Every structure is written in C-alpha cells, then in structure tokens.
Amino acid sequence: MDYIELSINCEPRDPWADIAVALLADLPFDSFVDTETGVLAYIPASSFNKDEVENLLHVNFPEEEVHYSIQDRFIEQENWNAKWESDFEPVHVGDELSILAPFHDQSLAKKHVIEIMPKMSFGTGHHQTTRLMCSFLLEEEVKGNRVLDMGTGTGILAILAEQLGADSILAVDIEDWSVENTIENAERNACTKIEGRCGDMDCISENEFDIILANINRNILLRHLPSYSDKLKQNGTLFLSGFFNSDAEDLKQAAGEVGLTFISQKSEENWCALKFESSKKD
After folding, report:
1. Of 40, 93, 153, 173, which is the most exposed, with the fewest CB atoms less than 10 Å away?
2. What is the C-alpha radius of gyration for the chain, rounded to an integer number of angstroms?
3. What are the tens digits of pLDDT across the range 14-57?
C-alpha cells in the first residue's frame, strides 16, 4: 500500500502539534511521528484528501495563536519499512519496559522487553498515550486475566499483557494490516495467548473481560463506552487513552453514566489516560 507523509510545522509547536494529531486521528491517518517543529502524519494514499486536511486545520488553528504550514509527499509501499527504521528510536517506560525494534542494541533492554517491527501500524510506543497505557498496565495485577485490547495497532499492549501473565488477550483493530502486524509481533515475542481480530465492537461476541484497554480517540471512546461497560465483568478494569487532558472530564462523566467508576488519571504533556472500574452489578 502506498502512503502519504504529511509534514505539519507549528509555531509555537506546543500544544498545536498534539492538537493536530488529535484532529487527524479522526481522519484515516494511522501513524504519527513527533518532530522538533511539529509532527509527521501518515495516511493511505487512496484516502488522502488535502482540501479536507487544510480545511480542518484552518477551522481549528486560530491565526492569532499559531502559525503553521503543511507539506505532503508520496511514499511507495517498498519504502515504508525503511522510513520507519530510520525514525524508530528505542522507547523506555520508566525502569520497567523497553520497546525495541530488531535492529536496536538489545543491551538497552529494561526488565520487560517488547520487540516490534511496526510496519504501517500505529503504536510504536513513541506516542505519549501508548506510554501512559503501558505505565498503567505495569501497575495492574494482570495474571490470570482475560484482556480485550481495542485499537491494538502494533499489539504492544496485548504483548505486554501476556508478558504480565494474562490468560487470554483479544486484540482488535479495524485495519487488517494492523491485525496482521499484531500477529507478527506476537510471534516475534513468543506470545501464544493473543488472538488478533479485524473489526469493531460488533465483531466481539465475548463478554466478562477482566481488563479492557482502549487507546483510540475521544469520539470513538465516547461511542464505545456503553459496550465497554457491558463487556467488563463485575469489578473489571477499563483503561482509556488517546485524548487530551481537556477531554478527561467529558469521558469521566460519560463513563459514570454507564456504570463505570473513575479510579485514577495519568498525564504526559497534554495527553491523558484514565482508569475506571466496573461498578458492582446486581
């Protein structure tokens, strides 16, 4: 598949680069790389509509607050992995976890190590939301649990869940190449308890999950919250990320309306992750 690389430069960079990511995530952009002046965003060439992007930024980027420029370039399929390899630096989550590619120095590894080849999938660990979710999961009692990973991307959270002792993990994504990448990365990390599945909530017939992980975006999370609540077992745990700190109160309120109790919050820069527990059911 051919891709478009969209380069967005912002002055000031913060928080506008993060705002650009949140806006573009609602379009078919599926991968992002931070730069010193903004962000690189990637989208299948067949789905790219430059007028749509320009209008989205024009509406949401006030001239009096930010100056920005965009530039796009075509990337052929065979150049995609080379592009990721040149950009993909090792990722460390505290002293507990290292996310490495096969070409990285393995001596950099921390206590837990996940080796991935990201290909076209979002979720290399470089984004704040992935690190926040990993941090939450590292603090959780995962052993023996049934886990649902929504919007799995490269499968990082599913792989970490298995490394932490989960009994079974269902890793779901709407993009078939993400599911394929998750399966490849699961095999790369000797995982045997991860099932990859392509689809949305309607592809999940299972219920009674101990843990649900959803690192997607605000609008999809709000739409899916009732389903997450239904599929959690009594006193099960839900972790959400993929949104800004400013969105947290809306998500807390919506979660409370479907029987989910807010437990705690983590933040990195302007990004946020939330932990909820399923309220006791009659």
Report:
1. 40
2. 18
3. 889 889 988 888 787 877 777 889 998 888 889 999 999 999 99
